[in-house]
């Protein structure tokens, strides 16, 4: 893979910044009648973006929408520099993953069915992105840092656990319903509440992985990738 354009990479960093800014501001401003402080073990991203429940929901949803679309632009722009056939499905899936996250911000949990649809596909596409990247890295066709495969593996494991843990019938949710359908369960909740914790692990690992991919764009040397 050739070095991506500086403009596309800057849009990627801008997207990460927008996402983190929206999340941090919403967390700091969170104030609920049930619990005055935000707790990643009990509260979900969906609750932070619920109008009428979270005071700064508009900040979070705006950050999710515009930040994710900036990363979508980075992914699509990177397609023109791909030299391996596995690079195309990777960047396309990563773009669709962040498009699904933008969908989550555009349709908060107040619009329940559309919100759950976006959240569901965010985890499915995120898992698929990690799979395609691991294939790309295993073939030695990745121009990113050599340790990014480990972060991709963490993304894959956390997101697959979020999707398929309920199918093990461990009683983690009522009736073993999928975690993405449990975003608005009434308090009190067990600690840790697995739908919330695994959602944050999946999102956090994805953002960390994407950030490292972007940083790698600045340290990539064509001389180190003569086989690409």
Q: Find the structural class using helix and strand composition.
A: mainly alpha
Number of strands: 0
- Poorly predicted runs of 5 or more residues: 221-228
Biggest sheet layout: none
Rg, nearest Å: 18 Å
Strand content: under 5%
> Tally the helices: what do you get?
7
Provide the succession of SSEs: HHHHHHH
Helix content: 55-70%
Gross morphology: globular
Mean pLDDT: 84
Structural account:
With 228 residues, the protein is mainly α. It is built from seven helices and no strands. It has helices spanning 6-28, 45-48, 57-78, 87-106, 112-138, 148-164, 194-219. Residues 221-228 have low confidence and may be disordered.
Observed structural traits:
7 helices; 228 residues; mainly alpha
SSE map:
Blueprint: H1 6-28, H2 45-48, H3 57-78, H4 87-106, H5 112-138, H6 148-164, H7 194-219
Helix pairs in contact: 1-3, 1-7, 3-4, 4-5, 5-6, 6-7
Précis, in short:
The protein has 228 residues and is an all-alpha fold. It contains 7 helices and no strands. Helix 1 runs antiparallel to helix 7, helix 3 packs antiparallel against helix 4 and helix 6 packs antiparallel against helix 7.
């Amino acid at each position: 893979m050739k070095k991506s354009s500086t403009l596309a990479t800057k849009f990627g960093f801008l997207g990460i910044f927008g996402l983190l800014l929206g999340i941090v501001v919403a967390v700091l401003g969170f104030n609920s009648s049930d619990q005055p402080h935000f707790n990643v073990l009990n509260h979900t991203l969906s609750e932070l973006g619920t109008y009428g429940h979270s005071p700064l929901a508009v900040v979070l949803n705006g950050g999710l929408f515009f930040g994710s679309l900036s990363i979508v632009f980075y992914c699509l722009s990177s397609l023109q520099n791909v030299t391996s056939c596995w690079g195309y499905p990777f960047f396309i899936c990563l773009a669709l993953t962040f498009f699904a996250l933008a969908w989550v911000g555009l349709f908060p949990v107040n619009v329940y069915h559309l919100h759950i649809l976006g959240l569901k596909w965010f985890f499915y596409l995120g898992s698929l992105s990690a799979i395609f990247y691991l294939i790309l890295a295993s073939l030695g066709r990745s121009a990113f840092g050599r340790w990014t495969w480990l972060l991709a593996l963490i993304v894959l494991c956390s997101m697959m656990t979020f999707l398929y843990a309920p199918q093990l019938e461990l009683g983690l949710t009522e009736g073993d319903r999928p975690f993405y359908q449990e975003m608005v369960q009434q308090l009190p909740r067990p600690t840790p509440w697995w739908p919330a914790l695994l959602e944050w692990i999946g999102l956090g690992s994805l953002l960390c992985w994407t950030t490292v991919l972007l940083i790698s764009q600045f340290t990539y040397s064509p001389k180190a990738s003569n086989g690409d």
